[in-house]
Amino acid sequence: MSVTLPELVCPAGSLPALKMAVDRGADCVYCGLKDETNARNFSGLNFDTTSLREGIRYAHQHRRKVLLAINTYAQAGQSERWRHAVDQAAEFGVDAVILADMGLLAYAAQTHPHLRLHLSVQGSATNYEAINYCHERFGVVRAVLPRVLTLLQVEQVIRHTPVEIEVFGFGSLCVMVEGRCLLSSYVTGESPNTHGVCSPAKAVRWNQTPKGMQSRLNGMLIDQYADGENAGYPTLCKGRFDVHDEIYYALEEPTSLNVLSVLPDLLRIGVAAIKVEGRQRSPAYVGQVTQILRAALDACADDAGRYSVKPSWAAALNKVAEGQQATLGAYSRPWK
User: Fold this and answer.
1) Residue 334 scores a pLDDT above 80
2) In terms of residue numbers, what domain contains 117?
3) Are residues 78 and 155 in the same domain?
4) Whole-prediction pTM
């Protein structure tokens, strides 16, 4: 039985990362502007008008697509900035915009009726009723599912919506349902849904102490690392805390989602796109992950019945996984 191969959607936090993704086999790249309109608003990342135009030109030259993430929520009195980002996307000729804000979806549908609209994972739509509403009301043609659904639940969504369904295939996991995180705003006063970053750089501090390297977020101790221990970027959800005299990852252990072993199932149920997380990661990371997933998808398409994960693929992805370990997350839930 022939299957339609999902698009491989890869992150681009910079122009070099965009070109790396295209060169290594991505079907689509997704990126954001250098402001609060995108959910990876890190200093030194993202695109200005010049680099975005060049990225679109390069991708289209290689017959690849560019998706622009405008996936934070417009703030009262500042909504013109978000609307202007949608206007720029249409003007520059991106292949789709990824939106979460219902007001922006309405604006895009009314102002740019030919602009392809994708519902961001930040929209937090976990059921087909919500997705169908966005399709009927705004003309959304693709939705990115939060990483909290089992394969059976994803299949149920696909069966009951005409909207293309995109799922995450590799990258950092989030303990929250995307679009509903309050942890960062609790500590820093700035939500990733409005300011575009879990841990604002201005709130991050590293201090060397006799006990080891400490990481703090707005003064709150998030973690402490022994000499030689790998130190991750401090986010509240992945810190280690003292709970009843035991220090451990109380909320979530650093690990990355990796769907290589269930690719045949994702193809069987009709997933339209598989997304790689990591716009904040390096071009080298983007290149390595893109190349491996491209090879795995092609191998699965050739013969899904005989497909198996090559040890070299798993080893390479584990090296760039958060905490150097991987999981199937909610895709593999032994209980019902």
Assistant:
1) no
2) 7-173+255-331
3) yes
4) 0.90
